[in-house]
Specification:
Length: about 250
């Protein structure tokens, strides 16, 4: 486990981020972030509200420009690409707040996720999403805006999976959900990884995220301050005190 400037990404990492910095105008919000995600992993990025977690994911997806740093995917430069090219390369983002299209049906929202595809397997992939989320099959003709919060989150994840990503970026998937739905969402995240999709998870529910993660990073004030396995980070006294309800050891 390492404190301080973060963990240098190994050459074999699927996603390698080195020295990422992001600013909104004159306000710098992410500072010199380095992290790595290896194929087959679930990697968690935790931190308080305003720490810069969503900004990191937005920069990885090309939704906000980086002011410094290098992003590589499968060893090739990824920064500077348009969003749709990043999706085509194999990365999808489920944004905070679900972001479904409320006046379109469940089935129509899923087809939006396949908008870059030209193959004949879109229908088969929708069936796979319905197998993963049976509630969506029951509501396939219902408008997304009429779904419950948990169902909308399932739809947002399913829509992202329709692009057949190798790396799925998840931003606060448990936000605003009832405890029983949160447990279901985390079970589904584990199932998605088991099916072969690598995951970078931003999550305020640190206890659940660290229990699921192979490795984790802690972001404070836009900087990586701690990195290690999920178990190592979960047992750190500062993390226990700040995120897991424990007492900070002397």
């Amino acid at each position: 486990m390492k404190r301080g400037d973060g963990e240098a990404a190994p050459p074999a990492a699927m996603l390698s981020v080195q020295g990422l910095s992001v600013a909104y105008g004159a306000l710098a919000v992410v500072h010199d972030v380095s992290l790595a995600v290896r194929e087959g992993e679930i990697v968690a990025l935790i931190g308080a509200n305003g720490a810069g977690k969503t900004t990191v994911l937005s920069a990885l997806m090309g939704l906000v420009p980086a002011t410094a740093g290098r992003i590589a995917f499968d060893g090739a430069r990824f920064d500077g690409l348009a969003v749709e090219r990043r999706v085509a390369r194999g990365v999808s983002l489920v944004q905070e707040g679900r972001q479904t299209v409320p006046n379109l049906s469940v089935a129509e929202n899923l087809r939006i996720g396949a908008y870059l595809r030209r193959d004949a397997q879109v229908g088969a992939d929708i069936e796979r999403i319905y197998a993963l989320f049976p509630r969506l099959r029951e509501r396939e003709k219902q408008l997304a805006g009429l779904l419950s919060g948990g169902e909308q989150q399932m739809l947002a994840i399913g829509r992202a999976l329709m692009a057949r990503p190798r790396l799925l970026l998840l931003d606060e998937p448990s936000m605003g959900l009832a405890p029983r739905i949160i447990a279901s969402i985390f079970d589904i995240i584990a199932d998605i990884r088991s099916a072969g999709t690598t995951i970078l998870l931003v999550e305020q529910n640190a206890r659940e995220a660290l229990a699921l993660a192979d490795r984790a990073y802690v972001l404070e004030h836009g900087r990586i301050v701690l990195a290690g396995t999920g178990a190592q980070v979960a047992s750190d006294p500062a993390v226990l005190a700040a995120y897991l309800g424990g007492r900070h050891a002397a």
